[in-house]
Structures are given as structure tokens and as C-alpha cells.
Amino acid sequence: MSKGKVWRYGDSVNTDVIFPGKYTYSVLDHDEMAKHALEDLDLEFTHKVKPGDIVVAGKNFGCGSSREQAAICLKHAGVQAVIAKSFARIFFRNAINQGLPVVQCSEAVDNIQGGDEISIDFATGVIESQKGVFEFAPLPESVLQILNAGGLIPYIKKKMEREKNNGESNA
Prior knowledge:
It is a single chain. The protein is of the alpha/beta class. It folds into two domains: 2-139, Aconitase, domain 4 (Alpha-Beta Barrel); 140-171, no CATH class. It has eight helices and seven strands; from the N terminus they run βαααβαβαβαβββαα. The chain has a seven-stranded mixed beta sheet.
């Protein structure tokens, strides 16, 4: 279960707006990337976002390039989830790989406003807010495992370590 304050945006928020392309090759540190999250869309975001906040947006969130910095900067800025009407496929995959939950739920997007406090249960597929309760397809167990590990690479490392330890105990 996650709870947080909503930052509200519209349709087609692209990767160059999420993480400005001018920093692609000069800003490599994840915490430094976070300082530039959404700066071309919302100058207040990087100064006021708090750990646990949630981004809510319209259609086609994360369209544009395939750069993973868009997902990285949001996660390291403290965003704990993105809810949208739809996502660009590559952003969706990059977000999961980085351990940033993404939820598609049009009804929630249509009703939730910036500043609202909401909670999300990824396993049961429920978003609760002052505006009501909204359902979405629960995240698959495999995705939940990746998210709980902190992303795909930490998940694979933990899995390999478990397999290594099980192999040693069976020898």
C-alpha cells in the first residue's frame, strides 16, 4: 500500500519534459537527475516534491525517446508511482525496470486532482481518494517482485544470489 500527494499533469507528457534532453549526456548521477525532473513542465516540482508523492497524468505518459532517465529521475525525486490513462510502452517498461510502479486507470485520472491525498494498493488494484475508490488491473506477481526488489537489476541479483546459495546447500 502506498500513500501520497498528487501532482497532476495532462496528456502526452514526453520523456524530454520528464527529464530534459539537454542533460542526457552531462547528468549521469541519479540524485542529480532528480533535481531536473519535470523542470520544463513545472518549475515547482523539483523544489516541492516529497518522497512518496504520486504523479497523475492523462494519455500517452512517457512518449518520446527510449531514454531511461525519465523513469530514473522521477523515482529518485521521490515519486512512488505514476497513474495515467495510458503510457508509452517503452516508458512503462523502463519504469518497472527502475522499480517505479505505473498504473493505468482512466477513472482515477478523471477524478483525482493535484494536491489530493491518495492511496494505492498495487496487489489488489485499488486507488482510494477523497473522490472515491477506483479499480485497476492488479499488478502481476512478477512485476510486484521486481518493484519490491527496487527494480529489475536488484531483482535479478537477489534471484541469482538465492540460486547460488541453494546450489551450495544442495552440494
